[in-house]
Design brief:
Helices cover 27% and strands 29% of the residues. The protein has 5 helices and 8 strands. An 8-stranded mixed β-sheet has the order 1-2-3-4-5-6-8-7, with helices on both faces. Strand 4 and strand 5 form a beta hairpin.
């Protein structure tokens, strides 16, 4: 039997509708520099949809925190060029974090407009759901701005329900696992 080339766990090569190849993989500390460099390429709406307020830059501290998730309670993925970490341009980031003393996790996803609308957000979300189920969690949820219709549509298509929050303009999407 011939040996097959296998990717490490949580690594998946995908081809977008435009033919571009991306590697979805766990985030690594080497990704901090490309994340900071690529942040300036994001549109203000993309940043606001993810962080729910404007940010001019991704600080070194925030980049370091993002690229070093706690393996017991957090999981983060990138959708990047299939190059070594630290060299690959990162087009999408997804993160999930278990809420302390609960069976619930919160997610956040950011996909650049350069690859938006090509299914990258769906691919990332499906992996976050799989991770949360593997942790035997009961719910996966996230806060989404009302005007972020692509994210709300994605959540709806995957079975998330939408609930109002105490914050005007914000919707909580929840998936019972």
């Amino acid at each position: 039997m011939a040996a097959r080339n296998r990717l490490p766990p949580w690594h998946d090569q995908i081809r977008l509708a435009n033919g571009r190849e991306l590697l979805i993989r766990p985030i690594r500390p080497d990704d901090a520099v490309p994340l900071r460099a690529g942040f300036s390429l994001l549109k203000p709406d993309e940043v606001r949809h993810r962080f729910q307020h404007s940010l001019k830059e991704l600080t070194q501290e925030n980049a370091d925190r993002l690229t070093r998730p706690d393996p017991k309670s957090e999981f983060a993925l990138v959708a990047a060029e299939p190059l070594p970490p630290g060299e690959a341009l990162v087009g999408g980031v997804a993160r999930v974090s278990i809420v302390a003393d609960s069976r619930e996790a919160e997610f956040a996803i950011l996909v650049s407009h350069y690859i938006g609308g090509m299914g990258v957000g769906r691919q990332l979300m499906l992996r976050l759901v799989r991770w949360a189920k593997g942790k035997k969690l009961e719910r996966l949820c996230g806060d989404v701005l009302e005007q972020n219709q692509p994210m709300l549509g994605l959540a709806r298509s995957l079975g998330f329900r939408q609930d109002p929050t105490d914050t005007p303009g914000l919707v909580r999407v929840t998936l019972d696992l």
